[in-house]
């Protein structure tokens, strides 16, 4: 069989994206609006987006940062905390402003200090969400310092997710940025109301990439990269035909100096390369025929949104990733796979 040189797919959506605010937002948003029709926007700003009024204002700033030739719809989320007002959420969902609610266990990741300290504190909110059909998006890692950082996702499934699903079996849940075989298997075998997003880095790399030839801060994100067995299992899951896995880049820009530091930030700015990387790994897995479902169909179905009519064309044409991207008012950002050659280009 001759090698595929070109694929045309329905325009993808990014179901997990950090766009930040102000100058950073203006600098990074065009990398997403170029390749994606819609994105679920994460609410972990400083301070976090908890009030409907603030989310409406933030959405306006997002809309005004979209280049005039791009068609891009930000889908807004709110940051769940111990003091969340359930009426605000229901109101926001019913009038179409909110698409989902994000749960960060307190201190699990970047800007999560105001997250939920115990699921029990938010159970009434989650019950109301179950009733309304509002999706709960989860950063699924336990925060117990005694738990090895590589085990925190698997532990979260046992200690928090399974009990939660027993209490609220109808709650729509997305396990964000799944990174382990435990997560892949749990979602694959799970019910129709449980899904997962998968990032490009977690299906391209294993944890060796953190240490290859020296410490590599630009491959540091949370949940942290895992052993290769996990990457392989995730790859099998996303190409298995299970329609509850979908694209979520978790593109999370941080300024270069804050990554290359004694205490470096977690997060990978992968928006400029994500589609190319997904195409590459699906090709490696002989599963290019499954790419479109993952990038452009499964997520829309889960969120009960229409499938995009526009298309994007991916061509097998090598290009070199920029070493650094300068963002006025912010400084340099090092994109994921900076300086490396990729095989697929977005036309
Ligand atoms: N993934 C990351 O490593 N970082 C994200 C937060 C998150 O998604 O957990 C960020 O906001 O920088
Ligand atoms: Zn996260
Ligand atoms: Zn994220």
């Amino acid at each position: 069989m001759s090698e595929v040189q070109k694929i045309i797919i329905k325009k993808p959506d990014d179901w997990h994206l950090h766009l930040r605010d102000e100058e950073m937002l203006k600098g990074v948003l065009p990398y997403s609006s170029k390749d994606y029709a819609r994105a679920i926007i994460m609410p972990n700003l400083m301070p976090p987006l908890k009030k409907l009024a603030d989310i409406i204002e933030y959405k306006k700033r997002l809309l005004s940062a979209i280049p005039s030739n791009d068609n891009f719809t930000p889908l807004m989320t709110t940051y769940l905390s111990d003091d969340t007002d359930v009426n605000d959420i229901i109101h926001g969902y019913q009038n179409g402003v909110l698409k989902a609610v994000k749960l960060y266990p307190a201190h699990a990741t970047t800007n999560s200090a105001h997250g939920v300290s115990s699921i029990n504190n938010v159970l009434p909110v989650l019950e109301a969400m179950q009733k309304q059909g509002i999706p709960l998006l989860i950063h699924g890692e336990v925060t117990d310092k005694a738990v090895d950082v590589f085990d925190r996702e698997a532990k979260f499934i046992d200690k928090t997710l399974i009990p939660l699903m027993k209490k609220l079996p109808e709650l729509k849940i997305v396990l964000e940025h799944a990174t382990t075989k435990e997560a892949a298997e749990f979602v694959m075998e799970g019910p129709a109301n449980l899904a997962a997003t998968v990032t490009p880095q977690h299906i391209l790399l294993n944890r060796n990439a953190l240490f290859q030839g020296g410490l590599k801060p630009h491959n540091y994100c949370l949940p942290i990269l895992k052993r290769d067995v996990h990457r392989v299992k995730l790859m099998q899951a996303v190409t298995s035909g299970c329609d509850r896995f979908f694209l979520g880049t978790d593109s999370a820009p941080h300024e270069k100096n804050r990554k290359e530091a004694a205490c470096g930030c977690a997060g990978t700015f992968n928006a400029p390369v994500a589609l190319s990387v997904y195409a590459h790994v699906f090709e490696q897995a002989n599963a290019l025929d499954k790419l479109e479902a993952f990038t452009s169909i499964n997520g829309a179905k889960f969120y009960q949104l229409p499938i995009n009519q526009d298309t994007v064309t991916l061509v097998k044409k090598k290009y070199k990733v920029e070493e650094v991207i300068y963002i006025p008012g912010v400084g340099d950002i090092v994109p994921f796979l900076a300086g490396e050659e990729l095989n697929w280009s977005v036309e």
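The pocket of zinc ion (ligand 3) is lined by residues 16, 18, 42, 250, 252 (CB under 6 Å). The CA atoms of residues 23 and 170 lie 40 Å apart.
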